[in-house]
C-alpha cells in the first residue's frame, strides 16, 4: 500500500469532510507519519550525552570501578509481636541483602526485642537495608553500630573426647567453659567476637569437631551512647528516676 | 443488596442529580450527621468481634465495601447487614480487590474489600500485590478458620498473614475480640498514612463470634508510622540552590504527587519557575497534558519528547516517584547529565534505584511549598532556551498516526474519539497491554485520579473491576470508560454481571486485535515473530456476550462506525461494551527496549 495512492483517494472522497477527525489523520498525517511506527529522527540521529551512572544510579566518571562493600552491624529495637523476625528475614531475602547473621532476643522492656544483624554490602546497600528495616511497622528504631561497639557471639562445640587434657587447655586458652564431658565427646562453650570464635574453631579442629551451634553476632554500643539512636532513653520498670539508670530499650 | 435502580434515574439530562443511582435509596447525609454517625460507631459497645469490625469501618467513615461471602467471613457479613456500609457483591475476589483499589484511588481514601479464608484470601493476592506496587491505600479483611484450628490444615485454611506479608504495608492476625475493632481501625488508618499502601486483617471466626463490649474508638495509625510532612530546612535549601543554578531543569511528577494531593502545588511550582514537566505513568493527571509546559509521560512507551527531556536535563526535580525500571530504562544511562533532587515521603525510596544528589524527605505538597519559598526572588533559573528545545522535540517526535479509511481502524483513533466525546474529568481505567499504552498516550489527561491503571504489577484484568470501583466512587456526572484488550477483558469479564446488577453506568471499550497484542509485539521484535501462545484462534463476540450479561453491546468494524457508536455507548445509561475491531498489526511506539537508554527510544520496529 503506498501512501500516495491512498492519500489521493482520501482527498477525492466526499465521505470525510476535511475537518473530520478521520481526514485529520488521513495518511500522510501530520506531514509524514510513516506507515508503521512514528515519525522523527532515528536513534542514531539524536544527540546522546556521554555521562553514565553506576549500578546505584550514582553518576560516575567513565572508568570508575565497582563500589567496595563493607561489613556493618545493625541493631533494631522491635515490638515483640509474632512474626516480627519472619518479617525482617523475609525483607532481607526479598531485597537480596547479603546477611551474614541475624539474632533476636528480649530486652529489659517487656514487649520489646532487639534484632542484631550483620550485613556485607556497599555503602548504598547498607543504607537501604537500614531504611527498609525501619519501615516495618513493628520496628521502633534502627541504628548502625560504630566500630568500637561491643560485639560478641557464642558457639557450642562438640569435639571428640580422646584427648580431654588438651581440649581443656584450649578451652581455657579461649576463656571457654566445658559444659559436658563424656568418654567419647566433650562439649565446650566459647564466647567472644567473631574473629576469636573463628580462631577457636580452627584450634578445636585438631580433635575432630562433631557438631557446632553458633548464635551469630549480637552487639551493643559502648558507654552512654544508645545502640539505636534517635530513640529517647526510657526507664525500665525496676529503675529509679535517676538519669544514670536510664535504659535505651524503649 | 440494592435493587437495580431504574435505568433512567440518572439520565444525562438530569445529570446534576445528587446521590448515586445505585444508592438512590440511601438518603444523603449532611457532614454533621456523618460525623455523628462516626462518633457513635467509635463509642458504642459493639457486642461481638464482628460488630466491632463493622463499627471500626463505620468509625472510619467507610461508605462502600466490595467482597465475596464465605464460611469464615460470614459473621462479619452478618454484622454488615445492619450497617451503613454499602456492600457490593463481586463475582470474584480479584474483582473485589481491584474495585476497592480503584475506589480508593478515586476517593483518596482506602478502599475496603472482604473475602473468606483460603481461596477467598488467595484470590485477593494479585490485587493486594497490585495495590502495594502502586502505593494504593486499601484495607483487606479476610476470614480465617477458628483460632484453635489454625495450623491444622483445616478446611479452607491458608496462612493469609504469611502469604500477604511481603505485599502489604503491614498485616494483622486478630486474636482477641476485644482488640479486633481497634486493629481494623489501625489497619485502615495505617493504609493511608505517609506513603499509602494496602493493609490486611485476618479474622478468625471465633474472634468474630466472640463477645466484646469494648468500643472501637477512632481509627488511629501507630504514632511511629506518621511521618513529618515538612522536610528538613537544610535539605530544602540545598535543593533550592541546585534548582536555581540549573540550565535545563525538569520536573518529574510521579504518583506520589497525586496520592499526596499535591497537584495544585506541583502545577504552581512548575509554572512559577517555567520548568518543563514530565510525569511517570502513575503521575498522569498530576499536570494537565495540554499545558505548554507538559511533555506528557516518560519511560518505555512515553513520548519521544519526554524521553529526550529526561536524557538532556541537568537538574531532575523528581517528586513522589520510585524510579521504576519502566521509567528509567537502564539506570546507567538514566538522566546522565542530571543532578537529581528527589522529594519523597518514604526515606527508603531515596537513592534506592537512582542516587539522589539532593534528597528531600517530606510530603510532596508541603515540600513543593517549601522549595517555592526557598528559591529566592529573581534567582529562578532562566529556562527559556530549554523550553524552546523541549518544544522543538515535541515537533520532531509527534505522537501521530496515519489512517487509511479503507483499512482496519487504528486503536489510537478510537481512544481519541472517546476522549473528544467526554469531559475533561472523565475517568479512564485500563487492562494491561497495548491498549493500556494507547489509552495512556492518546487520551489527554488533565485532572488527577482520572487515569486508573495497573502500573507496577501490570495486572491483566484490572480494567473492568476498576471501572466498577471508580463508578461507585465517582460523582454521577463524570464518565467512566474502561479500555480493555480482548485478552485482559476475558480475565475478569464476569464482573459485567455486577455492573448490570448494580446498574453502573460504565463504558467498556475493547480494543480487539484478537492477539495477546503486547506479547505479539515483543515476539515480532525479539523472538523472530514466533507467535507462540499469543494469537487467539477464536474470540467470543464481545458485543453479543455483553447482551447476554444484560449489558448493552456495540461493535466497531470501520471508521464510519466510530462516531455513532461512541455517541450511543456514552448515552446509554448502564454498562455498555464496545467491541472495537482494530488493526491487529498495530504496535505501540515509541518504545525504549528493556534496560536501554531512554534517549534511544525506537519509533519503529527496525530501530529496536
Ligand atoms: C495477569 C497477567 N498475565 C500475563 C501478563 C503478560 N502480558 C502482558 S501484556 C499481555 C497481552 C495483553 O493482551 P490484551 O489484553 O489482548 O491486550 P493488547 O496488548 O492486545 O492490547 C500479556 C499476556 C500480564 N501482564 N498479566
Automatic annotation (TrEMBL), chain A:
Domain of life: Archaea
A Gene Ontology molecular function term of the record: acetolactate synthase activity
Biased composition (Acidic residues): 240-250
EC number: 2.2.1.6
Amino-acid biosynthesis recorded as keyword: yes
Pathway annotation: Amino-acid biosynthesis; L-isoleucine biosynthesis; L-isoleucine from 2-oxobutanoate: step 1/4; Amino-acid biosynthesis; L-valine biosynthesis; L-valine from pyruvate: step 1/4
Biological-process GO terms, alphabetical: amino acid biosynthetic process; branched-chain amino acid biosynthetic process
Record-linked PROSITE patterns: ACT
Region called Disordered, residue ranges: 1-70, 215-250
Keyword flag Transferase: yes
Basic and acidic residues compositional bias, start-end: 1-27, 43-70
Gene3D superfamilies documented for this protein: 3.30.70.260, ACT-like. Chain A, domain 2
Coiled-coil annotated spans: none
ACT domain mapped to chain residues: 73-150
Keywords: Amino-acid biosynthesis, Branched-chain amino acid biosynthesis, Transferase
GO-annotated cellular components: cytoplasm
Family membership noted in the UniProt record: Belongs to the acetolactate synthase small subunit family.
Family matches, as PANTHER family: ACETOLACTATE SYNTHASE SMALL SUBUNIT (PTHR30239), ACETOLACTATE SYNTHASE SMALL SUBUNIT 1, CHLOROPLASTIC (PTHR30239:SF0)
Protein name: Acetolactate synthase small subunit
Naturally occurring in which organism (per UniProt): Halobaculum roseum
TrEMBL record, chain B:
GO molecular function: acetolactate synthase activity; magnesium ion binding; thiamine pyrophosphate binding
Gene Ontology BP term (one): amino acid biosynthetic process
Pathway participation: Amino-acid biosynthesis; L-isoleucine biosynthesis; L-isoleucine from 2-oxobutanoate: step 1/4; Amino-acid biosynthesis; L-valine biosynthesis; L-valine from pyruvate: step 1/4
EC numbers for this chain: 2.2.1.6
Bilayer-crossing regions: none
Residues covered by the Thiamine pyrophosphate enzyme N-terminal TPP-binding domain: 49-161
Enzyme class, first EC level, given as a word: transferase
Region annotation Disordered: where it falls in the sequence: 1-46, 209-231
Gene3D superfamilies for the chain: 3.40.50.970, TPP-binding domain
Thiamine pyrophosphate enzyme TPP-binding domain residues: 431-579
Keywords: Amino-acid biosynthesis, Branched-chain amino acid biosynthesis, Magnesium, Metal-binding, Thiamine pyrophosphate, Transferase
Entry similarity comment: Belongs to the TPP enzyme family.
Protein name: Acetolactate synthase
Source organism per UniProt: Halobaculum roseum
Gene that specifies this protein: ilvB
Amino acid at each position: 500500500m503506498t501512501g500516495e495512492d491512498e492519500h489521493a483517494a482520501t482527498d477525492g472522497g466526499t465521505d470525510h469532510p476535511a475537518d473530520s477527525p478521520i481526514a485529520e489523520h488521513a495518511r500522510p498525517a501530520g506531514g509524514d507519519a510513516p506507515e508503521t511506527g512514528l515519525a522523527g529522527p532515528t536513534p542514531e540521529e539524536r544527540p546522546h550525552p556521554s555521562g553514565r551512572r553506576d549500578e546505584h544510579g550514582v553518576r560516575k566518571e567513565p572508568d570508575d570501578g565497582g563500589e567496595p562493600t563493607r561489613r556493618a552491624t545493625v541493631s533494631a529495637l522491635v515490638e515483640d509481636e509474632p512474626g516480627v523476625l519472619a518479617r525482617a528475614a523475609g525483607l532481607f531475602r526479598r531485597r537480596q541483602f547479603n546477611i551474614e547473621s541475624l539474632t533476636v532476643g528480649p530486652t529489659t522492656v517487656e514487649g520489646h526485642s532487639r534484632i542484631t544483624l550483620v550485613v556485607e554490602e556497599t555503602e548504598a546497600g547498607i543504607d537501604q537495608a537500614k531504611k527498609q528495616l525501619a519501615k516495618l511497622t513493628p520496628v521502633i528504631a534502627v541504628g548502625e553500630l560504630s566500630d568500637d561497639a561491643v560485639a560478641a557471639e557464642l558457639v557450642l562445640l562438640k569435639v571428640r573426647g580422646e584427648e580431654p587434657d588438651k581440649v581443656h587447655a584450649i578451652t581455657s586458652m579461649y576463656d571457654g567453659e566445658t559444659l559436658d564431658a563424656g568418654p567419647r565427646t566433650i562439649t565446650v562453650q566459647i564466647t567472644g567476637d567473631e574473629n576469636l570464635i573463628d580462631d577457636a574453631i580452627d584450634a578445636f579442629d585438631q580433635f575432630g569437631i562433631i557438631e557446632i551451634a553458633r548464635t551469630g553476632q549480637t552487639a551493643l554500643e559502648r558507654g552512654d551512647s544508645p545502640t539505636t539512636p534517635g530513640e529517647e532513653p526510657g526507664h525500665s520498670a525496676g529503675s529509679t528516676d535517676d538519669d544514670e539508670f536510664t535504659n535505651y530499650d524503649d | 443488596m440494592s435493587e437495580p435502580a431504574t435505568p433512567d434515574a440518572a439520565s444525562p439530562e438530569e445529570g446534576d442529580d445528587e446521590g448515586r443511582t445505585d444508592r438512590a435509596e440511601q438518603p444523603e447525609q449532611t457532614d454533621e450527621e456523618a460525623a455523628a454517625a462516626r462518633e457513635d460507631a467509635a463509642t458504642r459497645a459493639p457486642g461481638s468481634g464482628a460488630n466491632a469490625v463493622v463499627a471500626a469501618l463505620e468509625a472510619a467513615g467507610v461508605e462502600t465495601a466490595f467482597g465475596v461471602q464465605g464460611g469464615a467471613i460470614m459473621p462479619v457479613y452478618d454484622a454488615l447487614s445492619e450497617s451503613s456500609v454499602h456492600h457490593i457483591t463481586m463475582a470474584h475476589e480479584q474483582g473485589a480487590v481491584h474495585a476497592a483499589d480503584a475506589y480508593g484511588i478515586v476517593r483518596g481514601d482506602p478502599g475496603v474489600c472482604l473475602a473468606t479464608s483460603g481461596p477467598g484470601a488467595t484470590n485477593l493476592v494479585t490485587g493486594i500485590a497490585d495495590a502495594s506496587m502502586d502505593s494504593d491505600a486499601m484495607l483487606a479483611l479476610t476470614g480465617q478458620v477458628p483460632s484453635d484450628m489454625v495450623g491444622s490444615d483445616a478446611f479452607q485454611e491458608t496462612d493469609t498473614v504469611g502469604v500477604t506479608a511481603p505485599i502489604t504495608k503491614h498485616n494483622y492476625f486478630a486474636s482477641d475480640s476485644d482488640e479486633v475493632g481497634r486493629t481494623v481501625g489501625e489497619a485502615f488508618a495505617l493504609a493511608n498514612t505517609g506513603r499509602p499502601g494496602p493493609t490486611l486483617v485476618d479474622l478468625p471466626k471465633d474472634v468474630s463470634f466472640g463477645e466484646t463490649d469494648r468500643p472501637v474508638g477512632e481509627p488511629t495509625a501507630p504514632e511511629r508510622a506518621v511521618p513529618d510532612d515538612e522536610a528538613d530546612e537544610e535539605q530544602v535549601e540545598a535543593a533550592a540552590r541546585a534548582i536555581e543554578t540549573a540550565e535545563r531543569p525538569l520536573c518529574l511528577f510521579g504518583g506520589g504527587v497525586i496520592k499526596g494531593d499535591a497537584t495544585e502545588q506541583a502545577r504552581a511550582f512548575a509554572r512559577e519557575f517555567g520548568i518543563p514537566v514530565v510525569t511517570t505513568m502513575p503521575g498522569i493527571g498530576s499536570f494537565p497534558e495540554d499545558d505548554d509546559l507538559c511533555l506528557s509521560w516518560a519511560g518505555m512507551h512515553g513520548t519521544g519528547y519526554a524521553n529526550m527531556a529526561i536524557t538532556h536535563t541537568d537538574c531532575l526535580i523528581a517528586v513522589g516517584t520510585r524510579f521504576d525500571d519502566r521509567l528509567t530504562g537502564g539506570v546507567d544511562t538514566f538522566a546522565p547529565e542530571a543532578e537529581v533532587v528527589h522529594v519523597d515521603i518514604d526515606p527508603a525510596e531515596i537513592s534506592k534505584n537512582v542516587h539522589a544528589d539532593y534528597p528531600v524527605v517530606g510530603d510532596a505538597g508541603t515540600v513543593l511549598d517549601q522549595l517555592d519559598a526557598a528559591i529566592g526572588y529573581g534567582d529562578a533559573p532562566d529556562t527559556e532556551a530549554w523550553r524552546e528545545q523541549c518544544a522543538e522535540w515535541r515537533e520532531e517526535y509527534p505522537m501521530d498516526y496515519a489512517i487509511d479509511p479503507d483499512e482496519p481502524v487504528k486503536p489510537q483513533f478510537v481512544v481519541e474519539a472517546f476522549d473528544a466525546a467526554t469531559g475533561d474529568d472523565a475517568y479512564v481505567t485500563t487492562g494491561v497491554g497495548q491498549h493500556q499504552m494507547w489509552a495512556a498516550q492518546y487520551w489527554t489527561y488533565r485532572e488527577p485520579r482520572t487515569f486508573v491503571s495497573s502500573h507496577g504489577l501490570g495486572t491483566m484484568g484490572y480494567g473492568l473491576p476498576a471501572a466498577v470501583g471508580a463508578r461507585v466512587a465517582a460523582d454521577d456526572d463524570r464518565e467512566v470508560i474502561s479500555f480493555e484488550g480482548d485478552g485482559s477483558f476475558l480475565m475478569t469479564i464476569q464482573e459485567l454481571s455486577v455492573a448490570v446488577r448494580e446498574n453502573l453506568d460504565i463504558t467498556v471499550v475493547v480494543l480487539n486485535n484478537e492477539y495477546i497484542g503486547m506479547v505479539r509485539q515483543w515476539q515480532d521484535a525479539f523472538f523472530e515473530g514466533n507467535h507462540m501462545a499469543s494469537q487467539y484462534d477464536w474470540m467470543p463476540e464481545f458485543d453479543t456476550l455483553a447482551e447476554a450479561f444484560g449489558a448493552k453491546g456495540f461493535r466497531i468494524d470501520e471508521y464510519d462506525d466510530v462516531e455513532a457508536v461512541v455517541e450511543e455507548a456514552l448515552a446509554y445509561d448502564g454498562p455498555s461494551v464496545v467491541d472495537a475491531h482494530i488493526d491487529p498489526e498495530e504496535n505501540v511506539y515509541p518504545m525504549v527496549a528493556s534496560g536501554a537508554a531512554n534517549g534511544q527510544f525506537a519509533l519503529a520496529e527496525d530501530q529496536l
